[in-house]
Amino acid sequence: MVESSVQMDSFLETSSAASLVQIASRFKSRISLVAEEKTANAKSIMGLISLDLQSGNVVKIIAEGEDEQQVVPEIENVLLNLA
């Protein structure tokens, strides 16, 4: 299992959530995002939207599986570079 935390600089819009799901879906690992006591599957757009990620939120990325080492930097990059 690989974990990392990032602080959001912007809120997660629906279009950004869709991009995140597309990226997460390329990997075989289970990927979860945890924010303010809520957990969501990073491969589920409804799950990501339900997190209601806002600027200032700290998001924990948890990846578990055969490609977990590659997953976390990809997801971090998306979360840190929201437009």
Description:
This protein has 83 residues and is of the alpha+beta class. The protein has a single domain, classed as HPr-like (Histidine-containing Protein, Chain: A, 2-Layer Sandwich), CATH 3.30.1340. It contains 3 helices and 4 strands. The chain has helices at residues 14-25, 45-51, 68-80; strands at residues 2-7, 30-35, 38-41, 58-64. It has a 4-stranded antiparallel beta sheet with strand order 1-4-2-3, covered by helices on one side. A hairpin with a 2-residue loop joins strand 2 (30-35) and strand 3 (38-41). Helix 1 packs antiparallel against helix 3. The protein starts with a strand and ends with a helix. The mean pLDDT is 95.
Give me the secondary-structure topology.
Blueprint: E1 2-7, H1 14-25, E2 30-35, E3 38-41, H2 45-51, E4 58-64, H3 68-80
Antiparallel strand pairs: 1-4, 2-3, 2-4
Helix pairs in contact: 1-3
Task: Describe the strand arrangement of the main beta sheet, using strand numbers.
Answer: 1-4-2-3
Measured between the Cα atoms of the first and last residue, the distance is: 29 Å
Counted by DSSP, the helix tally is 3
Report the CATH topology name. Answer: Histidine-containing Protein, Chain: A
CATH superfamily: HPr-like
Average per-residue pLDDT, rounded, comes to 95
**Roughly what fraction of the amino acids lie in strands?**
25-35%
Give the tally of β-strands: 4
Element pattern in H and E:
EHEEHEH
Unreliable stretches (pLDDT < 50, length at least 5) are: none
- Biggest sheet features: 4 strands, antiparallel
CATH class value:
Alpha Beta
Radius of gyration: 11 Å
How does the helix and strand content classify structurally? alpha+beta
Number of domains: 1
Q: Any idea what the shape is?
A: globular
